[in-house]
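[[Local backbone shapes]]
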Amino acid sequence: MIRVMPNAPAMVGRGMAALVRSKGASKNDEAFALRIFLAVGDAVALKDEALLDPVTALSGSGPAYVYLFVKALADAAANEGIPRDLAIRMG
């Protein structure tokens, strides 16, 4: 078994995935899983499954919060008169 924490930016080819292989998975299994996730962004193999919790906070959920923050800034700029497409581009 290989446990993987991918993130939503993978949907646009900018993802980040961290994976950890179990003792029953081989290095070849790990390499295969890395190739899959490298096809939609970046990927790393970790040695310790306990690291998947902080990975989830950092790259699993983190990009969504950054997106919401930038969207809020762009919304505020649009409310002040900057065209929305320009506000998004500038954010």
Observations:
- The first helix runs from residue 27 to 38.
- The CA atoms of residues 68 and 74 lie 10 Å apart.
- The mean pLDDT is 93.
- The two ends are 40 Å apart (CA to CA).
